[in-house]
Amino acid sequence: MQRHIVVLGAGYAGANAAARLAKRLHPADTRITLVNADAEFVERVRLHQLATGQDLPPRTLTDVFAGTGVRVRIARVTGIDADSRTVQVVDADGPDEITYDTLVYALGSSASGVTEHAYDIAGKGSALRLRNRLAELTAGDAVLVVGGGLTGIEAVTEIAEARPDLAVSLVARGGLGDWLGEKARQHLRTAFDRLGITVLAHTDVETVEPGRVVTAGGRSIPARVTVWTAGFAVHPLAAATTLEVSGTGQIVVDDTMRSVSHPDVYAVGDAALAHGVHGIPLRMSCASGVPSAHHAADAIAARLTGRPIPPNRIGYNAQCMSLGRRDGILQWVTPDDRPKPSAITGRSAARAKELICRAAAWSMSHPTSMLPARRRRISPASTPTQVPV
């Protein structure tokens, strides 16, 4: 009897989980179904480039996973019954239900706090809407990016470089890059000055209105376009189930990315409230999502095949950010994500960031090329009716 493993979401985390499972488990014993609402893989770490007029190569999921043994199902997930092990979906043929033995939940996150008068770059559709709006602007128009994290910095520098005729500003709740080491902070300030970006640090935005934002202090800041990058929220689906979730709606998982309430469910990427090496909480990022997907897949395969579960070694090495196409910062960090004094800046950092982005996309687009295939048979003791995994 084949065991059915269903992976929900084909972002960096979900796609990598499905690919790694296909490399670890024998197809005679398992069926792997990857469910995603979009027919293409979206290179989320490049959406600030898409928003400024650059084109990204299409990667159709059915082409990517052809010949891997992973079945791609283009459908929108509408519900999960974690007690009966079923997933409700809607596809081109209408509503349907998928039964699973093991579920990998990787539905990711979207921009949080976005109002009707702001744009975001958390998804392909929203990035394209911003792209169209920026194309309508004329010289001197004001663009305001709200949020001083990695996404906000990459977005504002990309816009300023692509459209030097615009008046581009960044609003940050804290200081500019205040989580970075001194060398990286200094380079960031220099890059902002070079690009002509105005920084409003230690400022909270209260409301976004047509043509302006209003700060918590009552200041009105003109903006023909407001781009909201101040945080992400997970898909609300998990919170509507019997799965144990955190206050943020993330699925609470153990050291192997397995749900603490439902042992047949694993959560990876932004959807999981997870910890890495030394018990550090993992932040929402590609740098966390891919390793968590690999670890979950390895844990699932180990449990199913009766092998030792590998230890959780998820940690950080660096934080990378692009500052337009020809500049960047690579901040070296400790495994628990604290900045080290050393950093690479300028063109070298831009090239490093580009290589990292290309490697992430290549590994997802060539799932059969990663890792030697070790498709092991499932242990008889791990049949769905005996040991739920």
TrEMBL record:
The keyword Membrane does not apply. Signal peptide: none annotated. Its EC number is 1.6.5.-. Its cofactor is FAD. Residues 368-389 are annotated as: Disordered. SUPFAM superfamilies: FAD/NAD(P)-binding domain. Residues 380-389 have a biased composition (Polar residues). Keywords: FAD, Flavoprotein, Oxidoreductase. Belongs to the NADH dehydrogenase family. PANTHER family: 64 KDA MITOCHONDRIAL NADH DEHYDROGENASE (EUROFUNG), APOPTOSIS-INDUCING FACTOR 1. This is NAD(P)/FAD-dependent oxidoreductase. The lineage of its organism: Bacteria, Bacillati, Actinomycetota, Actinomycetes, Micromonosporales.
